[in-house]
UniProtKB/TrEMBL annotation:
Residues 9-56 form the DUF1508 domain. Pfam families: DUF1508 (PF07411). This is YegP family protein. Coiled coil: none annotated.
Amino acid sequence: MYKFEVYKDKAGEFRFRFKAPNGEAMFSSEGYKAKASALSAIESIKKNTPGADLVDTTKE
């Protein structure tokens, strides 16, 4: 099951990572001073990504 995991980094900021069913982290967030801000970012991703475009800036 895919999941978001909220944690505190060494600087004391809240971050989250998105994990695949095998436990591997697929991506991580920036640091947030408030836990509520990290949770809000997660909700925004859940709500706004179904129609997200892919932009490939590589030259291949």
